[in-house]
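In line with agreed milestones, the collection of sequences with tokenised folds has grown. One record among many is set out beneath this paragraph:
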Amino acid sequence: MAQRNDDSPLSPAARNLDAPAGGLASFPPSDRWSDWEEYDPAEWPRKVGRHYTLVPTICFNCEAGCGLLAYVDRESMRIRKFEGNPLHPGSRGRNCAKGPATINQVNDPERILYPMRRAGRRGEGRWERVTWDAALDDIAGRIRRALVEDRRNEIVYHVGRPGHELVYNQRVLHAWGIDGHNSHTNVCSAGARTGYAFWHGADRPSPDHANARFILLLSSHLEAGHYFNPHAQRIIEAKARGAKVCVIDTRLSNTASKADYWLSTWPGSEAAVLLAICRLVLESGAYDREFVRRWVNWEEYLRAEHPDKAPTFESFERVLRELYAEYTPEFAARESGCDAATIVEVAREVGRAGSALATHVWRNAAAGNLGGWQVARALEFLAVLMGAIGAPGGTGVGIANKFIPAPPLMPPGPKAWNELMWPREFPLAFFEMSFLLPHFLREGRGKLAMYFTRVYNPVWTNPDGMSWVETLSDERIVERHACLTPIWSETAWFADYVLPMGHASERHDLLSQETHAARWIGFRQPVLRAAMERAGRRFNSTWEAHREAGLGEVWEEDEFWIELSWRIDPDGALGIRKYFESPYRPGEKLTVDDLYGWMFEHSVPGLPEAAAKERLTPLQYMRKYGAFLVEDSVYNTHEKPLNDIEILESEVEEESGIVSRQGAALGVRIDDRYHVGFPTASRKLEFYSSTLKEWGWPEYSVPCYIRSHVHRSNIDRGRGEMLLLPTFRLPTLVHTRSGNAKWLTEISHSNPLWLHPEDARRLGVATGNLLRVTTEIGYFVDKVWVTESIRPGVIACSHHLGRWRLRADTGGERWSSALVDLNQVGPGQWRMRQRQGVEPFRSGDPDSERVWWHDAGVHQNLTFPVQPDPVSGQHCWHQKVTVARPGADDRYGDIFVDTNKSREIYRRWMAMTRPAPGPGGLRRPLWLARAYRPAPEAFYIR
């Protein structure tokens, strides 16, 4: 018998077993996925084998898009569990807690299985079951009338995280000829996106964490941030090889606790710290001089802002040192509260790392503060100085590591511009001003004939949720509201239709994210349909497969949009239907196999060849493996040379070196060589943004520090004022999507106020006591957690919790929501009180009667006014609040909101904007990216 050392991690009972032939495997080998056998753990200690077919799909419980394998019992055709897909290039078989919890969502006893229609007043809670035909015909008729009557801007699709990241829904709305996409991004990441975009035209970074020597993170990415599982595993790999990590985060997050350096900044001061590090790098000469000379638009900056200076790089270097001379470590320490010596040490580590500097910010400071977009700009400035852009171990440009395959017959952009989403006041906003929609509608800027919400819960997620309740309740301005959702939510309660759509494992779509220095594509598929078709069954649609599997009439979104579009334009007269016809069978309705089969055959390089080696079609290959690596080790894509034909057919602007053909920039000439460059106006990295200057923000044309609306000088602690930090995530939850996952809710179901001991002594409270937190439009009452993990003067509260429902038996997930009374106590004045927390309940899942927790958290977002940054459009989440002991009548979870005050504050922030038109009568710069981009002529104000 094989003997092992006593320090073996195996249990004593297993130490004397012979090692299996070929060693232990972490995952089932893919050649056995069609018939995998393992023992049923529920039968232990008996050894009862179960046979499974393993179907790959994609997780939907955050944005990362990690791969999953569904274990489908071959006998019962029931999904037994979800584990990681080892062939997924981004996640590599590893998942956080949210991935396996997909099984909770599939088996949720409270999920919606049939289409429902409102039977009373909105919000009254009276519903009736309706057929899909009735719902589709009503919705299609309303959309058709709006299109025929040229009321195109009255159709809006409002989505949080669709899963359809890659063109699909853009194709739908553009086929309809509307500018109707409304996203959640300006309450999420628009601040950071704006800062990145003004540097290199792309709105996301792509850090090569695994190969970095120094990793600089703003926020808790390792455990809970953007793409956190694919990033976290690569950060751990880098640390194992000796890389150091610095976390800039006001809270001592789990990530910060594992870092080599933790800088607990006063919220909003992060740009001051970053620019101080940039200054130190400039002073020491540790920056990559040649990279900056070649790839930064310093010539343009000198011509525009310093025409008296010699047009040399040496002049630019002198100007840079003068420009950032004020950003000393001591200045940064005064602004941030951090130690100046630590800032200097971090700068030295950055210098030692050279171009292997991986950096990242997403929400955190960029989403919390007025001017937060300059935090991302300052962070990217540091990466630019070090020559880390696109370098191994550095910080790439997101578009270089993301792959978007072209679909068949893509419709052109519409000749329409919807000012309900893209108002003139925000010409540089990086995404739609979605959280201002209630205010725009109440001001009379328009109305909605058809409003869709999908994977979005604005009543709960957005600030100023009671303004959403008031607006969604008004049938004069929102005529029809269809909520496409598998579960009840606070927003669905105020809809006209609640239409059940599939969870992550119950629909098709594609995903590709910039998780590392590669390009890959993942394929989400409805696993029960795929498993039954492997067994020889055939279905015309996914909802038919779901019906067969006992899932009621749950549709998938792809087929919903295809069917709806055919009903809008049944004879093709509107020019819509042709985009939903099969590319293989002209005139016949498009199927999901047609759509994805065509894309995999024509638009994914290398996939047809890889499939052919296994005697599979590309679609069969993706159904079998679930993901495909398009290209590995993707670096320095900006250096790609233009080919001879491109050069010969183009013109070169002598002063700037921009290479263009027929008015469209193709690249840039640098040192007599021609490169693709970056998707900016200059095709270089734009330290100087002529766009910001031309569009009314000359003071922000270079990276700088903007004092936040919650700068410490605005907080009077003597009067009980504090800063509320509400932006952080919990690693086990994600917005409203995880409320139906019992495992996750059992782990995390409370969002107490993080309070420093110094503030606790001042307020006379201890852990578990209540505090009333008063904002500009109301207040909420929450419990305290006293901890040194937060700065004095700052309180923090996670935004993932505080779910509520208005009926005991429906309207919200009973695993995670409190039953509340919601009463209007005066014009615009609303009071919410919890009647009961989470309690055991009877259902088809025996675990529902074993619920032991009662807390559902507190819904703080209701009490926040809208605070749109005038440049990026990002809602500035951080709040100046007054914190006090509760009154005699205050109870845990109490909320009060005055929407009259919310409108006053809305107008105050709107007064900070500098509206279009810009140069040439434009609504927005033509070079600047825009979601669901319309036709060029729509950019002009006529």
Observations:
- Residues 437 and 443 are 10 Å apart (CA to CA).
- The longest strand covers residues 49-58.
- Confidence is low (pLDDT under 50) at residues 1-5.
- The domain at 195-403+696-700 is CATH 3.40.228.10 (Dimethylsulfoxide Reductase; domain 2).
